[in-house]
Amino acid sequence: MSRPIYADPVHDGAADPVVVQRAGTDEWWMFYTNRRADLGGEGAGWIHGSAIGYAVSTDGGRNWDYRGTVEGLDDPADAGLNTHWAPEVIRAGDRYHMYLSYMPGTGEGATEPDRRIVHFTSPDLVAWTRQGVLPRSSHNVIDAAVARTPDGLYRLWYKDEAQGSSTWSLTSPDLYDWTMEGQVLPGSPDAPPHEGPNVFFLSGFWWLIVDEWRGQGVYRSDDAINWRRQGLILAEPGLDPDDRRFARHGDVVTQGDWAALFYFTHPHWAETETPVPVTFEERRTVIHVARLHVEDGRLLATRDIDGVTLDQALGEGAC
Asked: What is the extent of the structural domain holding 105?
């Protein structure tokens, strides 16, 4: 069955997961957007003002222990409640790097959003040091994903909400200094709008998946620069009652010739019938895992499984 592997025990709104192994241990750490699904009222207040929650697994990802929220991620100039979304966390050398989607405040009363991606580093996944704000193609960028590509550079892919919900990229030689590269995937009106890019290498190909709010759009590449569309995965419902909706914003952990895709669902929100989730049940989210593999050059996903077991240490620059 495709039953959930995790639900946030405080606000019940875990979304946008990223999973990384803590070096030298059997611990896998999951960081996620801690949406406040239990917050009443209309509007987007339950999405904005969110912290970054984290949970830890010591049994290869089958069970997760909630550990709290990450401290120290606010800009010192921003007082009060701020918005934290969709962290990307990777390990390179002896440091972990977090690329966080951040918006000052909660967006209430703002004429337009001011969202940016902020870089932090940590020696232990606990204490994070702010490194700075990355270049951006508009005032409204979120959802970072990072990988080291065959040309030796690091690339960071992100969503530009102000430009049709398209995917753009930056390049860096060292994860600190970033240069704008340009648009990677067009969005509306030229192609399906999307968010939550994730890039990984599996079975001889580079893969880029994006959340199209109807399943995960899949693209394949030989060089992680030029991409060809395959189609959708995880658009069909799973068997478990909490997995009957399409898979949303996810993160991939490769494990040799297969990979684990961590994603979330809105189990009780019929999006085609109710454009905006209003009730607690509609806003509630849970995290699942699917198994990915490649067959005849195509990326395939299986969601009706009894979990997966993570046992392969991540290499430098993995994501």
From this structure: 14-302
Q: Is residue 318 part of a domain?
A: no
Q: Are strands 65-69 and 51-57 parallel, antiparallel or unpaired?
A: antiparallel
Q: Are 124 and 94 in contact (CB under 8 A)?
A: no
The Cα–Cα gap between 239 and 303 comes to: 9
Q: For residue 36, what are the CA distances in angstroms to 11, 14, 40, 41, 53? A: 5, 9, 9, 11, 11
C-alpha span between 233 and 215 (Å, rounded): 6
**Assigned domain for 310 exists:** no
Per-residue pLDDT tens listing for the chain (319 residues)? 678 999 999 999 999 999 999 999 999 999 999 999 999 888 888 999 999 999 999 999 999 999 999 999 999 999 999 999 999 999 999 999 999 999 999 887 666 789 999 999 999 999 999 999 999 999 999 999 999 999 999 999 999 999 999 999 999 999 999 999 999 999 999 999 999 999 999 999 999 999 999 999 999 999 999 999 999 999 999 999 999 999 999 999 999 999 999 999 999 998 877 788 999 999 999 999 999 999 999 999 999 987 788 986 434 333 3
Task: Give the domain CATH number at 139.
Answer: 2.115.10.20
